[in-house]
């Protein structure tokens, strides 16, 4: 009778071994530890995604099967098409500009002693929530220059080169010698040299009068010249003051432009003094005096940052303000790992700083730049808070994005089927970007 082969002898069967992971842990034990996380992942991610996909094929009530009608609405509904167009603008410009600014900040602050402080200041907006940032920039973009910082700066720069009118509300009072003419005012009858002319106006609030305005005086006649006074013909108090003549409490209109017009042509012009008096040469004799429209144009009030044409770029600007610091910090970390020997070798070979930056620094930072750009692209596809808070109701349709349209369809318009279709569409847009990022990370690991 043959004896069994000894254990371990050649050809002997190998006894079964318990299956373990590469770390030595039994796979069943590992699965048990992962189970709670998998349950949460399924409840919070997989189930909502699956339910949204199913719900996107049903009608508004959720009882009738709508087929692909909800997906057709993505390309036929005007609001959704506007949102899709704006999302494309966001994806193209916001990550690009934020990454470019982050790169510039990281490179320029590398050699300065206060670079760390600067980076801290630039990164600080990341500590602010989207809600708070939206409220801040809603005030920054306020149309009133006295409230909105953007328009306060813009108006200040504009008024430095093109002074605004000080009398936008001025107009003739009753029994005035002036009548309306091409946005300004003109005398009803021709004027004569040697006879002072009175050009009274009303309508300018006392606190809006120019600081250099002085007490109005009656003009004195001069031989061969047309003289006159233009002033604020209004005195506080009922029954106080004389119409058509300067009173002691009334002030002149300094800088008011006066033109002498004959046969539709300007033959002479001047500006009123601080007390409102003016003088024109003899060729103004027999002409009509005109106060041109330039005296009464509305003061420049800045740009309508949150109007239909600028609302999307303005909101993108607020997003860049928040996320440029994030890009800067990641790029600065990548820059710290760049071999300095390569940079110095390029400089020794005669490369300028711009050439070193463009041909050495940027290529070496390409993986980091890709991470930052892709991360921001995924982020902007989901942007909602800033658009919802900053854009006023009158411009929200023009600033609309897919995430905001999803909210509006699902809650404001009670169309959950279309809202679910938008959610699925957003997921499909994000997947290629995430796939690209995963492939890039795997290539980095292999290296």
Report on this model:
The chain is of the alpha+beta class and 447 residues long. The chain contains 13 helices and eight strands. A five-stranded antiparallel beta sheet has the order 1-2-8-5-6, with no helix packed on it. A three-stranded mixed beta sheet has the order 3-4-7, with no helix packed on it. Strand 1 (178-181) and strand 2 (184-187) form a beta hairpin. The protein is elongated. The relative contact order is 0.13. The mean pLDDT is 87.
Straight-line distance between termini: 60 Å
Task: Please compute the radius of gyration using only Cα atoms.
Answer: 37 Å
What fraction strand?
Answer: 5-15%
- Unreliable stretches (pLDDT < 50, length at least 5) are none
Summarize the structure.
With 447 residues, this protein is of the alpha+beta class. The protein is 47% helix and 9% strand.
Keywords:
elongated, 8 strands, five-stranded antiparallel sheet, alpha+beta, three-stranded mixed sheet, 447 residues, 13 helices, single chain
Break the fold down into its secondary structure elements and pairings.
Elements: H1 27-55, H2 69-76, H3 78-108, H4 115-123, H5 130-140, H6 149-161, E1 178-181, E2 184-187, E3 197-201, E4 226-232, E5 257-262, E6 265-271, E7 277-280, E8 288-291, H7 311-336, H8 340-348, H9 353-364, H10 366-381, H11 385-390, H12 402-412, H13 416-446
Parallel strand pairs: 3-4
Antiparallel strand pairs: 1-2, 2-8, 4-7, 5-6, 5-8
Helix pairs in contact: 1-13, 2-13, 3-7, 3-10, 3-12, 4-7, 7-10, 8-9, 10-13, 12-13
């Amino acid at each position: 009778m043959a004896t069994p082969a000894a254990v371990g002898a050649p050809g002997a069967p190998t006894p079964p071994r318990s299956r373990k992971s590469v770390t030595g842990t039994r796979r069943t034990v590992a699965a048990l530890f992962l189970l709670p996380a998998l349950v949460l992942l399924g409840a919070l991610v997989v189930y909502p995604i699956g339910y949204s996909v199913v719900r996107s094929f049903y009608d508004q009530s959720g009882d009738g099967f709508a087929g692909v009608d909800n997906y057709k609405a993505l390309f036929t509904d005007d609001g959704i098409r506007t949102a899709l167009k704006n999302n494309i603008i966001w994806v193209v410009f916001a990550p690009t500009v934020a990454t470019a600014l982050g790169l510039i900040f990281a490179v320029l602050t590398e050699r300065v002693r206060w670079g760390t402080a600067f980076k801290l200041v630039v990164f600080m907006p990341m500590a602010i929530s989207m809600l708070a940032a939206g409220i801040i920039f809603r005030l920054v973009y306020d149309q009133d220059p006295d409230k909105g910082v953007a328009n306060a700066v813009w108006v200040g720069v504009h008024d430095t080169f093109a002074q605004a009118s000080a009398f936008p509300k001025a107009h003739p009072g009753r029994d005035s010698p002036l009548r309306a003419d091409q946005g300004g005012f003109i005398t009803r009858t021709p004027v004569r040299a040697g006879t002072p002319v009175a050009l009274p106006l009303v309508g300018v609030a006392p606190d809006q009068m120019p600081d250099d305005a002085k007490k109005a005086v009656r003009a004195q006649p001069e031989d061969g010249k047309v003289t006159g006074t233009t002033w604020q013909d209004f005195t506080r108090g009922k029954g106080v003051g004389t119409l058509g003549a300067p009173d002691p409490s009334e002030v002149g209109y300094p800088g008011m432009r006066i033109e002498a017009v004959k046969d539709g042509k300007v033959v002479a012009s001047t500006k009123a003094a601080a007390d409102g008096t003016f003088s024109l040469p003899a060729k103004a004799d027999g002409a009509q005096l005109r106060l041109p429209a330039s005296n009464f144009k509305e003061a420049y009030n800045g740009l309508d940052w949150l109007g239909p044409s600028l609302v999307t770029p303005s909101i993108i600007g607020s997003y860049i303000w928040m996320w440029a610091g994030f890009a800067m910090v990641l790029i600065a970390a990548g820059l710290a790992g760049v071999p300095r020997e390569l940079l110095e070798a390029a400089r020794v070979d005669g490369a300028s700083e711009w050439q070193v930056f463009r041909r050495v620094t940027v290529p070496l930072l390409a993986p980091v730049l890709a991470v930052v750009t892709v991360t921001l692209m995924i982020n902007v596809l989901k942007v909602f808070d800033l658009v919802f808070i900053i854009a006023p109701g009158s411009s929200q349709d023009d600033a609309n994005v897919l995430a905001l349209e999803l909210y509006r369809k699902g809650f404001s318009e009670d169309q959950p089927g279309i809202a679910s279709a938008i959610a699925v569409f957003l997921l499909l847009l994000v997947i290629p970007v995430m796939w690209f990022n995963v492939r890039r990370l795997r290539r980095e690991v292999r290296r």
